[in-house]
């Protein structure tokens, strides 16, 4: 005996509603795209399986991803156990049924069309303790209601329930389902021809740099390399950026004159420290997540590129480029010129530079996560004091101080007057 009806239970693959555990490595849109690809792979396997009926039990609205030949029923019930039971009831027309989820894109027609003659049920377990498939001859709510779902023992509990009710159960091969970035990477490597796998490879090698930067802000290990793979730096200082301002930060801030503009504010430790000193300050960053982290600290921040119009143009008492932000966009001279436009005539520009005075590296960098995700090349510069001084002169900024600690180095500038620029 084989199933006469195959049921796929799924959620509409919308950002923020599916595959939320992938968000440690992927954006909500990317996670939804992976979920959609996984669902399409599953539906394709079901279409290739010789059965009489194919049913999609859907939470949401069917889209162009649904191939022909499927009847669609809406999910009903509160918990997953109730929705599974309802899916069997709504799909039943006298034929044995097998239900699968959308998280095992590697499922095959051979697995779905398995002969379970002499058995009352069929169960396919997953490596994480759940199960990927359940077959029943007839609907039976007692099989499902009250079984704990989404735990590391759901599969074992489901098997125990079936056996307690007297069901003769045929076990299918254990599969790995796709919940985490590691799951997705393993499945993509093992089953490279899947639609999900092809999408995963594209996403792995073409992440927007801001995605990986924001993951670093959340504690994920991220390394910066050159496009040739040479290691430039680990973003190990993210822990410092996320913490309150340290002694060196406070030493730098003691030089500031309000109001202060912090370019590339990150998670906001500098703006927060300035506010605590009673100095008006604003952070700007292109990362929405960095701005959220800053505002959660109670400090003001704005999501905007520094090249776009900013509040207080030409009236800032101090403009800061700390934590390597002198490298933004790789065009050091243009960035310093922009700082000169933002600061008031007698204002201060404070720049953190590399400890290597001779460093002048404007090659793009690539961000890489520990899970293997790689960003598109990011224009960036890593520069020491000599290069910054050269560009500052062109931008009309006069050096006033060069100071450093064993681990960090800084330059401060004043905007030159017209007479000073001429001389």
UniProtKB/TrEMBL annotation:
A molecular-function term among this protein's GO annotations: transferase activity
A Pfam family hit: Methyltransf_23
InterPro entries reported in the protein's UniProt record: Nucleotide-diphossugar_trans, SAM-dependent_MTases_sf, Trfase_1_rSAM/seldom-assoc
Keyword line: Transferase
Protein name per Swiss-Prot or TrEMBL: Glycosyltransferase A (GT-A) superfamily protein (DUF2064 family)
Species the sequence originates in: Kribbella caucasensis
